[in-house]
Amino acid sequence: xxxxxxxxxxxxxxxxxxxxxxxxxxxxxxxxxxxxxxxxxxxxxxxxxxxxxxxxxxxxxxxxxxxxxxxxxxxxxxxxxxxxxxxxxxxxxxxxxxxxxxxxxxxxxxxxxxxxxxxxxxxxxxxxxxxxxxxxxxxxxxxxxxxxxxxxxxxxxxxxxxxxxxxxxxxxxxxxxxxxxxxxxxxxxxxxxxxxxxxxxxxxxxxxxxxxxxxxxxxxxxxxxxxxxxxxxxxxxxxxxxxxxxxxxxxxxxxxxxxxxxxxxxxxxxxxxxxxxxxxx
Length: 281
Hints:
By secondary structure, this protein is mostly beta strands. The protein has helices spanning 5-8, 43-58, 188-194; strands at residues 12-13, 19-22, 64-71, 79-88, 93-102, 105-115, 153-157, 173-180, 213-222, 236-246, 249-257, 263-273.
């Protein structure tokens, strides 16, 4: 039976200072038209587990401010071990790191910056466009290219998915409300999960077939503590933009907003484009 998201995010102490999670094929980044084993656990799940391992493993209680994660190799769908380290603990800021992998390969390494919010000057210039998720129809991704993990996400596009050239000659951008299908209140792990919950935005600029890529690194900056009152129904609005595609690389930015319009996270992701296969005789 496929894991629920809550089960996939569960980290179990291994008795030696590390933690273990079980990676399930239902979170594969392979298209649903292919076997789950053709892909690997998708980057948003790995980011959520990395942050959770640092928090749980070294006892951090303050909000996550920044997560930087490098995807070293594809993990397999089996147990994965995380080894967190407290690099420096302080009254206001805590630095931690974590490695995660399986016996014969390291899969990720990540850095986390944690710290409590305090009173001070405020400036929140990022504005959310109009619309509410309840006004939009659910838009499951086409199973021909939509990855397995997207079955755990409720997608509601503001102006359609714009796939395969609909943004040609225009800014390659995409707006979508998302929440996890359990409709649980948004929390830190679910936000990290959703920050990688859509296809690359450059899919909207180029014609089909999609140019496949692999996530190399991701940086997420959380702008506020993600408590249940931020989004009790789990919704956040995400706006993604391709900043550069060339030389075999793509750089994409995103911003997430709470339902009341507050910006709650920024994300930047670098992808390595996979060589396309030419026609075969």
